[in-house]
């Protein structure tokens, strides 16, 4: 009797094993999305045009996070705010190639890039905000090393800034350049460091003054005493009000009112 039943038990066992393996394979296939790869999330793309526009007036913004517009309302910044202050009948295009966190050697590399040359060559106004991140690296310096560190840092910055301006002049000899001066976001800092900021601005203005079509846009006095309203929530970048103050000052300087 057992001899007759045994083959049936063996066949049933084999069938159960096959069913189990098939189910396991199906389960794995479903878990892995049927053999398809998981969808990759694309990186956000920069809103930078491929080539210059054909607008009547072309404004190019270069530099760091302040040039980029960090802290301002979306899709605004110095360039866009200044554009609203000039002739409304003109077709004005604002291109922003600023990079948040940029320091002067990085901007020097950017303006040397062939892909950016057409934007520089066709601009009517180039607004530059650079140097704040270079100088901000001195915040950790102690009083004994500050003087030496400042001289070294400014020397490198000066070399880069002059290279940037020379490159722009090579590509666009007649363009108006506006160099945005630094404000002090640290009102309680060591007076020695505040003095270095003042010296930085003064020496930067001398570089700007060496070129007839480069204007220095002061912000130190404009922001002093108004940081609660002129700075964004991070306490470092301008707020929308602060950016409007910079744009208003830019407008006055370029029109010879300051």
From TrEMBL:
Protein name: Lipolytic protein, G-D-S-L family
Pfam families from the UniProt entry: Lipase_GDSL_2 (PF13472)
SUPFAM superfamilies the UniProt entry points to: SGNH hydrolase (SSF52266)
Disordered as annotated region, ranges: 33-53
Gene Ontology molecular functions: phosphatidylcholine lysophospholipase activity
Species assigned in the record: Acetobacterium woodii (strain ATCC 29683 / DSM 1030 / JCM 2381 / KCTC 1655 / WB1)
Annotated PANTHER family: SPORE GERMINATION LIPASE LIPC (PTHR30383:SF27), THIOESTERASE 1/PROTEASE 1/LYSOPHOSPHOLIPASE L1 (PTHR30383)
Domain SGNH hydrolase-type esterase: 61-245
């Amino acid at each position: 009797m057992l001899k007759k039943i045994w083959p049936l038990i063996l066949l049933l066992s084999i069938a159960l094993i096959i069913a189990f393996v098939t189910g396991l394979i199906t389960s794995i296939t479903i878990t892995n999305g049927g053999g398809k790869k998981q969808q990759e999330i694309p990186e956000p793309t920069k809103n930078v045009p491929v080539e210059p526009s054909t607008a009547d007036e072309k404004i190019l913004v270069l530099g760091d996070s302040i040039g980029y517009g960090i802290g301002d309302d979306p899709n605004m910044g110095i360039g866009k705010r200044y554009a609203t202050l000039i002739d409304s009948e003109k077709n004005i295009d604002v291109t922003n190639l600023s990079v948040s966190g940029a320091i002067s050697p990085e901007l020097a590399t950017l303006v040397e890039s062939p892909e950016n040359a057409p934007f520089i060559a066709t601009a009517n106004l180039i607004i530059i905000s650079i140097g704040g991140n270079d100088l901000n690296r001195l915040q950790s310096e102690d009083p004994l090393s500050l003087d030496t560190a400042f001289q070294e840092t400014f020397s490198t910055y000066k070399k880069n800034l002059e290279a940037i301006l020379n490159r722009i002049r090579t590509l666009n000899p007649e363009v108006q350049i506006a160099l945005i001066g630094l404000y002090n976001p640290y009102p309680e800092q060591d007076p020695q460091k505040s003095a270095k900021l003042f010296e930085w601005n003064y020496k930067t203005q001398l570089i700007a003054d060496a070129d007839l079509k480069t204007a220095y846009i002061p912000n130190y006095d404009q922001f002093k005493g108004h940081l609660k309203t002129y700075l964004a929530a991070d306490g470092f970048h301008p707020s929308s009000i602060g950016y409007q103050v910079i744009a208003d000052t830019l407008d006055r300087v370029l029109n010879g009112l300051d």
